Amino acid sequence: MHPYRTHTCGELRDENAGETVRLSGWIHRKRDHGNLLFVDLRDQYGITQCVIDTSSPIFETVESARLESVITVTGPVVARSAETVNAALPTGSIEVGMAEVNIENAADQLPLQVNSDEDTGEEIRLRYRYLDLRREKVARNILLRNDVIASIRRRMIAADFKEFQTPILTASSPEGARDYLVPSRLHPGKFYALPQAPQQFKQLLMVAGFDKYFQIAPCFRDEDARADRSPGEFYQLDFEMAYATQDDVFNAIEPVIAGVFEEFAGFNRDAPWSVTPTPFPRIPYAESMLKYGNDKPDLRNPIEIADVAEVFAGSDFKIFAGLVEKGGTVRAIPAPGGGSQPRSWFDKLNDWSRDEGAPGLGYIVLENGEGKGPIAKFVAGERLEKLKQLAGLKDGDAVFFSAGDAETAADLAGKARTKIGQDLDLIPTGRYDFCWIVDYPMYEKDKDTGAIEFSHNPFSMPQGEMAALDADDPLDVLAYQYDIVCNGVELSSGAIRNHRPDIMLKAFEIAGYDRATVEREFAGMFNAFRYGAPPHGGSAPGIDRIVMLIADEPNIREVIAFPMNQRAEDLMMGAPAEVDDARLRELHLKKVLPKGEK
What we know:
Elements: E1 20-33, E2 36-43, E3 46-53, H1 59-64, E4 70-79, E5 94-97, E6 100-105, H2 122-127, H3 129-132, H4 136-158, E7 162-163, E8 181-183, E9 191-193, H5 199-207, E10 212-221, E11 232-242, H6 246-263, E12 274-275, E13 282-284, H7 285-292, E14 306-307, H8 309-312, H9 318-325, E15 329-335, H10 343-355, E16 362-367, E17 370-372, H11 382-391, E18 398-404, H12 406-423, E19 431-432, E20 434-438, E21 443-445, E22 452-454, H13 465-471, E23 481-486, E24 489-496, H14 501-510, H15 515-521, H16 523-529, E25 536-539, H17 543-551, H18 581-586
Helix pairs in contact: 4-6, 4-17, 5-16, 7-12, 13-14, 15-16
């Protein structure tokens, strides 16, 4: 017999009754029933009930063992009587008599309860993450992550994508987020950077002649944490295709993403969630900013924002009329059925908007064909009818307003759309609503300096190619850039790449980079493009966010085995940590701490 187990703790069934088996696992729970002590033994695969009589010579050994001690049990499989069957467990029709018990490792007093989903606080959970991972809900999420990655890999290989690994130690890039730097011992004063993404390497693979590449790629960015973004590192399904149009990229990845979500849509639920059928809707960036107030819309929310500047142009409501006259705009956020809400709800929304940095949210309530509310007297007659038409309003609805320049008005309107949708319970569950956001602007203007800079990915192909860069206002140039969004969460950014060195130089020139800078900072890719680069494009959906959505978890740390906390600290391993002066000298480094720190 195997020294540790003949079966797992989730394996035994009625047909095993009468067999002598050996199981190993953790003591999940113990229950004292007088003359009998029941032990739930747990491993990754499930739980098996074990039982021992008080007359057994090993009873005291079992009784004194703490929860989460690792033990090996040997004994007969016994069928349970009908009234003692536990239908909630796959192994619930049998139990194992404890004829022999070996304590493999005795547990100390536990800092958190493993056999409970009670939240003990993030610091304790992350400091003792190996215990937290034993909890059923957390373990289930991590196993889901494995299954999702395996499914993605299988689907990509079936679509003839080839898996390659790209370097972890690379060069720093001036574009994008802040790099993590690694000092070089052999090259004093020089640094490697951990890759923010394999962007340049995957494009170079296309130049090298490979047709379809993918990788479950680790990426590193020195960014602050958010609920949907882990600080430090994350993983993405990185892929690239040669001789590909935007349609080709969409057609390649949509079956993979939709297929994975359909495969796991029933995860931990009574019924599977529905998934947007392919092809996914495509929404131009400008339309998304107008209708939804951002470029990652939650399409489950039925509210659509409307531009109603013309309603207030020349009106007696001087605040809005003056903004419109100066080139600003007014956005209307409908609240279907919101007219029945108490006055306190409107007041709370006003308070909420002030917390968001806005002066408030003006509103009108539609009742008996008329408008009521603080600014209703300024929107009457033809203006009210126009408002109803533009915002799709009817009696019983309310409508809120956000005003300012286009960006400011859209930002508040988008947040208000989400807030109102949540307050009025308009956002259904049970659905994964996907869309593509397309036609991103190639450039934007820096608010402080007025300088033209890249708005998205600097390596994207402008729509219209060189002709557009030569002839158009840079702020009017659109790029072949796209994001895939699900339920208000951005899963990935992607683009058809700029594969021509002349267009690349021109694109960077408009953003303020001279030729020497491009040749120095992007030497590998720029030089490669001079020797025959095929048209190519790709994307990189985030693995962590995919699993987070499937598991219906609000925080990305719940689907990562060993996450950092919000301050980018690994409490379990003690990272980041100081190193001694000898190590620093070896790396040619000297600590220069902020004033007041030692």
